[in-house]
Design a protein that fits this description.
Elements: E1 2-4, E2 10-12, E3 24-28, H1 35-42, E4 54-56, E5 58-61, E6 64-67, E7 76-79, H2 91-102, H3 107-116, H4 131-144, E8 149-153, H5 161-178, E9 182-185, E10 198-203, E11 208-212, H6 216-226, H7 243-248, H8 261-277, H9 279-301, H10 308-313, H11 315-356, H12 359-365, H13 370-408, H14 414-421, H15 423-427, H16 429-459, H17 465-494
Parallel strand pairs: 3-9, 3-10, 7-8, 8-9
Antiparallel strand pairs: 1-2, 1-4, 5-6, 10-11
Helix pairs in contact: 2-4, 4-5, 8-9, 8-13, 9-11, 9-13, 11-13, 11-16, 11-17, 13-16, 16-17
């Protein structure tokens, strides 16, 4: 195998290694030597950010031969550093989405995973789990992808001493029981050595893989020769699962495959609530409509240039004009600005967090079309929300206008306001239909384009929380600017 970085640095040259069933192999080396890059090759995730890596060589898995220079090889199920759990799903749903896209596990695998998760409630949100519990959920989810190779990237980096011991025992037992090889990237490797069958040392100086026995002195000597040393922790074997534990586990009920469509429905429901269905969102937009109704009516009639006589003289025509402009121009503009400013921030923050926490990479490794689910659900809900909130906003603004008008003209009946406020639409239905089309066009075009920018801003590479914050700011500024530009341009065409 040959592996060259996008900037031309050779990480590996003429390197080769093999993994046997049930074998546990450690991959160690200095920071930045390419350990994670190598497992990204084996999991099919190298270059998923658009970077131009150069990979050459061949990989054989049973009777299948991969040409790494032309083919993506995803034989490895990857437990990503930091776990990359889907934090909007429960523990059971994190497994369920993998099952539905990868196939139902056999009875033995279900029993093993149920034992693995026996102290975790399936309905708990993963954000409430401890570090060790999150790690086990991530391992179980990866095993459900049923790949021939298990890959773990720094699995013990955030665990305390006791949890690290349990994790090491767990991986060793799974490898042994399932006959599945595991390759573990470990910076703190010392106490994993008693569990390992072999150690691969990645030497970035000579661009080679050095195979060593799991001997501490030999491994440290090799690393010292490269110029780096590693910290260490101690890991011990755990006891294997018992049949009684397997039968009693509530997790077995969650090991059945169901239709993948339910996950799209799940994301549709989730984003409907976030983007348009929550009471706070509706109240936020309708408050804007309430203010618009008051302002247009109050300042339409109540200013110094109009005395009482003139106000009565122009009343009917002014009321018709206010109703027309309010429904076709002002309410759609304010409603879209409020929706875009709020939703663009939410969308970019949500997607940016998923990028930063490697959730999309985990989905790709599990063959879950996560971006398709999320982007489609977001766009559909933005359209649905825009239509619903525009209709509600026009109604609320009209009601607010009536209350303001009644305050200005307390002796006039409701029928007079109703007759003139909607007069142009009632007398000329063709104007009503034409302006409904214009309102729909500028509403949908501005919200959809602004949303697409928010999605693009969120999907960009995120290396820190600061980059997420900058992306949110750009999303709001550009989203509102797009909305203003489209609303103004179409309003000119409208008249």
């Amino acid at each position: 195998m040959k592996l060259v970085t996008p900037d031309g640095r050779t990480l590996l040259e003429d390197a080769s290694f093999s993994l046997a069933p049930g074998e546990l192999v450690l991959l160690v080396g200095p920071s930045g030597s390419g350990k994670s890059t190598l497992i990204n090759v084996l999991s099919g995730l190298l270059g998923d950010d658009g970077s131009a890596w150069q990979v050459a060589g061949q990989l054989r898995e049973n009777d299948r031969l991969y040409d790494l220079s032309t083919e993506i090889c995803d034989i490895g199920g990857l437990v990503i550093q930091g776990n990359a759990l889907f934090d909007d799903l429960t523990a059971a749903q994190n497994l369920g989405i993998a099952i539905d896209h990868g196939g139902a596990p056999d009875t033995n695998l279900s029993a093993r995973l149920a034992n693995l998760l026996q102290d975790i409630r399936p309905d708990h949100n993963v954000a409430s789990l401890s570090g060790g519990q999150r790690q086990r959920v991530a391992i179980a989810r990866t095993l459900l992808a049923q790949r021939p190779l298990l890959l773990l990237d720094e699995p013990n980096s955030s665990l305390d001493r006791y949890a690290a011991r349990q994790l090491g025992a767990l991986v060793k037992n799974l490898c042994r029981d399932m006959g599945k090889p595991a390759l573990i990237v470990a910076h703190h490797f010392d106490d994993l050595l008693p569990l390992a069958d072999r150690v691969l040392v990645l030497d970035p100086v000579k661009a080679r893989l050095l195979e060593l026995p799991p001997d501490r002195q030999k491994v440290e000597a090799a690393l010292l020769a490269i110029g780096k040393a590693s910290d260490s922790r101690q890991v011990a074997l755990d006891s294997p699962p018992t049949p009684d534990d397997r039968e009693a586990s509530p997790w077995l009920d969650h090991m059945q495959q169901r239709g993948v469509g339910r996950w799209f429905v799940n994301y549709m429901r989730e984003y409907f609530w976030i983007l348009c269905g929550s009471p706070l969102t509706v109240l936020y937009v309708l408050c804007g409509a309430l203010i618009v109704g008051f302002v247009t009516m109050w300042f339409g009639f109540n200013y110094d240039l109009l005395g009482d006589y003139m106000r009565s003289f122009v009343h009917d025509e002014a009321l018709m004009g206010i109703g027309f402009i309010e429904a076709t121009i002002v309410v759609p503009l304010i409603c879209c600005i409020l929706m875009v400013a709020r939703n663009n921030a939410i969308i970019t923050a949500d997607i940016g967090n998923r990028v930063y926490s490697s959730q999309f990479r985990a989905m790709r490794n599990l063959h879950i079309p996560g971006q398709t689910y999320l982007v489609t659900a977001i766009l559909l809900n933005v359209v649905i929300g825009a239509l619903l909130l525009i209709i509600l906003s026009i109604g609320v603004a009209s009601w607010s206008s009536y209350l303001t008008w009644k305050f200005l003209f307390p002796d006039q009946p409701f029928e007079l306001w109703q007759e003139h406020f909607f007069r142009i639409f009632v007398q000329r239905p063709e104007i009503l239909l034409r302006n409904i089309g214009w309102v729909l066009l500028k509403t949908l075009l501005s919200t959809v384009l602004a949303t697409l920018f928010a999605i693009q801003a969120g999907l960009g590479q995120k290396r820190s929380v600061i980059e997420i914050n900058y992306a949110i700011a750009r999303s709001i500024v550009f989203g509102v600017s797009i909305t203003l530009l489209i609303q103004a341009s179409i309003a000119i065409l409208q008249f």
